[in-house]
Amino acid sequence: MTGRTEPLGRRRFIGAAAVLGGAALAGPPAPAAAARPLGAAASAGARPETLATPPGFQPEGIAVSARGLAYTGSLIDGSLYRADLATGAGRIITEGRGPASVGLKLDTYGRLLVAGGGSGEIRVVHPGDGRVLATHRAATGATFVNDVVVGCGGAWFTDSFKDVLYFLPAGRELTGPGAAPRTLALGGEWVPVPPGGAHWGANGIERTPDGRALLVVYGAVQSLFRVDPRTGSATRTVLDGGSVANGDGLVVHGRTLYVVRNWSYAVDVFTLSGDGRRARFVRQITDPRFDEPTTAAVHGNRLYVVNARFDADWSDPATASTIVSCPL
C-alpha cells in the first residue's frame, strides 16, 4: 500500500486504533459469515477472469495457497475474505472489528500473517475458520505496518513510516508471549523516511531469487532496495529500464519480479539477477480493469491483481472492488 504525497482515501486507516491486545488470543472459533459469491460462476473448465470482493470491503493485500484459495483483507475494518480461484465462490472468514488488514501472507505452517497498518499490529490468523490466534504489537506512535514476506528465516514486515523491518522467526510458536516481533533497523544506502507521515517509505517486500536477501520498494525515493536480513544494510537495486515509481506490492516468481504500481495503473515486469542487485525491464502489463492496483500473487500461469480503489467512495456501503486475473 502506497500513495501520492497525500494519498486519497487512506488517511482514515493510518490512525486506526488497535482493538485487540498485544497478547495471544484464545477461545472458540469465531462463526464464519454466510457464503458470498465472488463473481459470476465459472463455466466448466474455466476460471473467473474478474472476481468481485464483497460490498463495503476495500481489499489491499493478497495471499494464495497451493490449492488455489485466495485471501485478502479489508482496509476498512480488518475483515478477511477467502475465495476459491477455480470457482469464484468466497466468504468472509473473519469479521473485522477495528484495525485494517493490509499485506498478508501464508507462512510455512499455513497460518495467515496479517500486517495491521496504523495499529502497529501483526495478527496471526487460522486460514480455515478465521480465528485470530495471536495479536502482536510491532510498533507504536506514527507507524504503518504495511506488507509481509515469508523467507530468510521467518516472516518480514515493512513499516512505511519507520526505517525498520519487523521479524517473526519461522517455526516459533506464534501464539505465546515469546513470539514478539524483533526490529531490524535499515541502514547503508537507505534514505531516512521524512517525518510527519506525508511520505511513504518501505512498502512491498519480497525475497531475492537466491533466497539470501530481501527486496523492498521505497515509495518516497521511487527506488528498489536489496536488504541484508542479518544487518539491515540496504543497497539500491540497479534498474536497467522500467520504473518502480508508485510501487506497491512485489511478487518474485523464479527470476521474474512483478512491481504493482498503483497510481500508474500498471504492473512492471523485470528479470532479476539471482542476488537481486540488478533488474532488467522486460515489459509492462496494463489492463482496463486495473483500478489503483496494490498487490498481486501468482497461481498457475496467472497473476492475480488486487484493486484497492483508493479514489472510490467507501463511505457508501455498496461500493465494491475486484481481483483481476492476467496471464503471466
Percent of residues in helical segments?
Answer: under 10%
Please state the average pLDDT score. Answer: 87
Strands of the widest sheet, in order across it, are 1-6-5-4-3
Structural class assignment: mainly beta
Which stretches of 5+ consecutive residues score pLDDT under 50? 4-44
Task: Note the run of SSEs as H and E.
Answer: HEEEEEEEEEEEEEEEEEEEEEEEEEEE
Describe the global form. globular
End-to-end CA span: 22 Å
Radius of gyration from the alpha-carbon trace, in angstroms: 18 Å
Number of helices: 1
* β-strand number: 27
What summary fits the major beta sheet? 5 strands, antiparallel
Strand content: 35-45%
Question: How would you characterize the overall build of this protein?
Answer:
The protein starts with 10 loop residues before the first helix and ends with a strand. It is built from 1 helix and 27 strands. The strands form 6 sheets. The chain has a 5-stranded antiparallel beta sheet, with no helix packed on it. It is mostly beta strands and 328 residues long.
Kindly summarize this structure in a few lines.
The chain is mainly β. The chain is built from one helix and 27 strands.
Furnish the topology, listing elements before pairings.
Elements: H1 11-14, E1 35-37, E2 50-52, E3 63-64, E4 69-73, E5 80-84, E6 89-94, E7 104-106, E8 112-115, E9 121-125, E10 132-137, E11 145-151, E12 154-159, E13 164-169, E14 182-185, E15 187-188, E16 202-207, E17 214-218, E18 223-227, E19 233-236, E20 238-240, E21 247-253, E22 256-261, E23 266-272, E24 278-285, E25 293-299, E26 302-307, E27 322-327
Parallel strand pairs: 15-19, 20-24
Antiparallel strand pairs: 1-6, 2-27, 3-4, 4-5, 5-6, 7-8, 8-9, 9-10, 11-12, 12-13, 13-14, 16-17, 17-18, 18-19, 21-22, 22-23, 23-24, 25-26, 26-27
